[in-house]
Amino acid sequence: MAQPIVAFTVVEVAKPNIGENWPTRVRADVTINLNVRDHIKDEWEEFRRNPAPKLAKCLTNAYYSAYGLRKHDVCFLITVRPTKPYGTKFDRRRPFIEQVGLVYVRGCEIQGMLDDKGRVIEDEFEVGPEPRPNLRGESRTFRVFLDPNQYQQDMTNTIQNGAEDVYETFNIIMRRKPKENNFKEKTALYAVLETIRNLMNTDCVVPDWLHDIILGYGDPSSAHYSKMPNQIATLDFNDTFLSIEHLKASFPGHNVKVTVEDPALQIPPFRSGKGKKRKDADVEDEDTEEAKTLIVEPHVIPNRGPYPYNQPKRNTIQFTHTQIEAIRAGMQPGLTMVVGPPGTGKTDVAVQIISNIYHNFPEQRTLIVTHSNQALNQLFEKIMALDIDERHLLRLGHGEEELETEKDFSSIKGYGRVNYVLARRIELLEEVKRLQKSLGVPGDASYTCETAGYFFLYQVMSRWEEYISKVKNKGSALPDVTEVSTFFPFHEYFANAPQPIFKGRSYEEDMEIAEGCFRHIKKIFTQLEEFRASELLRSGLDRSKYLLVKEAKIIAMTCTHAALKRHDLVKLGFKFQVPLQTLNLLLPIAEEDIVPKQKYDNILMEEAAQILEIETFIPLLLQNPQDGFSRLKRWIMIGDHHQLPPVIKNMAFQKYSNMEQSLFTRFVRVGVPTVDLDAQGRARASLCNLYNWRYKNLGNLPHVQLLPEFSTANAGLLYDFQLINVEDFQGVGESEPNPYFYQNLGEAEYVVALFMYMCLLGYPADRISILTTYNGQKHLIRDIINRRCGNNPLIGRPNKVTTVDRFQGQQNDYILLSLVRTRAVGHLSVSQMDVRRLVVAMSRARLGLYIFARVSLFQNCFELTPAFSQLTARPLHLHIIPTEPFPTTRKVFQTLINGERPSHEVQIIKNMPQMANFVYNMYMHLIQTTHHYHQVEWERNLTLLQLPPAMVEEGEEVQNQETELETEEEAMTVQADIIPSPTDTSCSQETPAFQTDTTSNQTETTPSETGPSSNPEAISALSETTTTVTGAVPAPAEANMPQDATSASAETK
């Protein structure tokens, strides 16, 4: 990724600091010409014109390219003077520099792109109605920072020794790929180390109730909510419970007393509290009758307005009693540790805790920290489904682009929430204009937020107070129900709401409706008052800071982003600097709004067991102490220490410094009380048995036994999970074309063949994922998929082809797993960490798990015995039912429990070549059957139309010619590119270089949902003749498959 430099100019050399002999800052302008293809231009331009309808809804008309140069990206300035003629082939045996003519290399850091006036665009543009600058032509200039020390040395050498000026010779600028440009702020390790250095010179304060636990001494349970002095007596569980029966089942062993006796009034939401208040934590006896009594009070949420969207969003999950205990603990002050095995609803518990804190303590702020962007996005998507005002949500970092929503919750470069505020402000002012028109008030009350505020104060409030004085209950006189509707002043404004607004059944009901209507109006002006600062703050940077420190109540980021931006966040939290030219305009606003404090009261950490101890500690210090004390009230950590720990690549740090132990794991080891979720709802009960031995009392939710998808067998496969033994292929098992780049061609071909077989039966490709334990095998499988079925609409691509480590936290219906190794077990069971990798691998599948491995190697490993004893109890050869299309009605219990044989014939596949040949014959027969089906349908349609004989004969001739041609082309395509014939050795050939680059950089494959299941008659015909096809499968022969198991592997690397 390089471009020729058109012009290079040093524009600033700042004076040195006192005591130094090098400049404090050196900046230069680099001009390049981007008269290139669009995808290449995307790699360099910082922003492009916006073609996306999602972003078109925003008030800006441009967007930042995900691959363009950004601030702080590192590039290289290069001087090249070729000495060889054009077209000379590069010789790897000779030195690199003398062949390419490389003379100088200097590093630089991007500050930004310049506009037509020579200003850095990022610093000068204003987010709002003004569009971003539309640069003309193809010439682009970047402002870059140079290394001051290197610049001083180069200039000294030029002046004293008469050397040439390096900075007048640059002719190429080079950048790395965006995902590899991991210098400075983009490197998590660098950010963590820099933060550690800064914290060593900072007065760090953690809450007193956490101090001893973090240091590792004292009572491990001292921070549990039951021992906190400020325990809250009564909590509003909001929509946590679905019914009073659900509430009673959630507190086993408690005596639940409801304050109302009428069953019709015992509906959620509920408030609950202990029957006896705690006075002395050391004396209180938890086993007393009073301590076991729970007082429950139903309450009604006030009416929010007559429109359907005014109705609060409600939780629909029936939490178990352990999940309720986790939610209850998370709402109380103190440290809450939740251990969540796979599929136990960790994310749902976290979201409900956040929602309940938001409603119980609206003045408090909550910080959400996760290890990965994917987990953070999953949290956000579920938070949006609950009753939380979206204006209080803020997502920091660059992972927001993957959120599956049209709304933008980020603050990247001033976008996201700033755009939402500006767009929402216009919508609300339009509502004010409509209200003003309905009331017949002259003027322009909807001009600004300030004029709208005056309109509400003098026009809306006066009418409402007059209305209340007319309809309120006067002494002993019975109120008239009709007066509530008759005197209501906003009938015309609510004319677009569902009618009738007032039911006329009772005075209390109609008054609640009227008050709900007024709450709807009042909320409009309350939001406009909050958005008023966006009219006065013109800079997009100031607007985004204001939203961060003032508006957001729930702020989410990854632990890496917290380390990257800790200095900025702490500085921003202390004082929000308002420009002097804006200060006079802000005088009418309260002082706390001018200089807000970015503080937070609660921290929730998801994937806590995957976060480094120091990365866990950093979010605690994103705010400076207040009067020497930390205001942190709650710390909720949710994770699973039985799955993979943080990744430490340095073996010395990993083994001798124990850095791979997360703070979550350390807390568990020292005995901090935990809430262990004990019911999973992800996988079949039989699949859960493969990993539940690692947990305490891990069971299954009722729907795992009741829902049809869990009780129905996997079509075309006899078992729902199976360990398939793969022997050496042509005398070769695992191979290592490069150090630690392990591959196994036999397993890779077997896995892809099973994937193709499932797709041919009708399985959607996006419901199948392929996992492996090594990167080398991952790249090999991707190469084979691209060669076998990459462009075939009947097969498609799997949802993902990746490693087990990268797939942690994700799931899919069907998992095909390749364990690769045949000589040594490798990193699957050498240590406790590797047993955790096994737990991750076994827990990713919901309905089907098929493992390809050398059974004789893995079954003798002691650490793997609990799982492999169950796997080896079943046959070690793949059992398929090729005549059973997807979906099937066969129950899995008929085979597993009752021992009944399926109605279709079962075929045993003994090795990989047999499976490959079977899939090839099955595919070719399906093509022929489909062609015959379409030909019969065409002839039947002609018969129904009753065309003249001549036209029929002519049409048949044309149709036959076309179908014969299509059949020939399809067969040639299949034999040449998609499905190798039994005598095809193409899969042993080296992959072209361009194809290797594509697959090696591929992170996710897009599935094709098209399958043969759309042709039931073709499937039926296939079922009738499968016996003939299977009988025609030739015996495995060495000539039928690749000759060199490592050739494709080496080329892939």
Strand element count: 30
Strand content: 5-15%
Radius of gyration from the alpha-carbon trace, in angstroms: 34 Å
By DSSP (H or I, 4+ residues per run), the number of helices equals: 38
Distance between the termini: 20 Å
Low-confidence stretches: 47-66, 123-130, 182-186, 276-286, 411-415, 574-597, 829-833, 962-1053
The computed structural class is: alpha/beta
- Main sheet: strand order: 15-16-14-17-18-13-19
What is the averaged pLDDT score?
Answer: 79
Shape: globular
Helix content: 25-40%
**Most strands sheet:** 7 strands, parallel
- Quaternary class: single chain
Topology record:
Elements: E1 2-13, E2 26-33, H1 38-41, E3 47-49, H2 53-56, E4 62-64, E5 74-80, H3 96-100, E6 102-113, H4 121-124, E7 139-146, H5 148-161, E8 172-175, H6 188-200, H7 208-215, E9 234-236, H8 244-250, E10 255-258, E11 270-274, E12 293-298, H9 321-331, E13 334-339, H10 346-360, E14 366-370, H11 373-383, E15 393-395, H12 417-439, H13 449-471, H14 481-486, H15 507-530, H16 532-536, H17 540-551, E16 554-558, H18 559-564, H19 566-574, H20 580-583, H21 591-594, E17 602-605, H22 613-617, E18 634-639, H23 651-656, H24 663-670, E19 675-676, E20 679-680, H25 685-688, E21 699-700, H26 702-706, H27 708-711, E22 721-725, E23 735-738, E24 741-743, H28 745-761, E25 768-772, H29 775-788, E26 800-803, E27 812-818, H30 832-842, E28 845-853, H31 855-858, H32 865-871, E29 878-880, H33 892-896, E30 907-909, H34 912-945, H35 949-978, H36 993-1000, H37 1016-1031, H38 1047-1052
Parallel strand pairs: 10-12, 13-18, 13-19, 14-16, 14-17, 15-16, 17-18, 20-21, 22-28, 25-26, 25-27, 27-28
Antiparallel strand pairs: 1-2, 1-8, 2-7, 3-4, 5-6, 5-8, 6-7, 9-11, 11-12, 23-24, 29-30
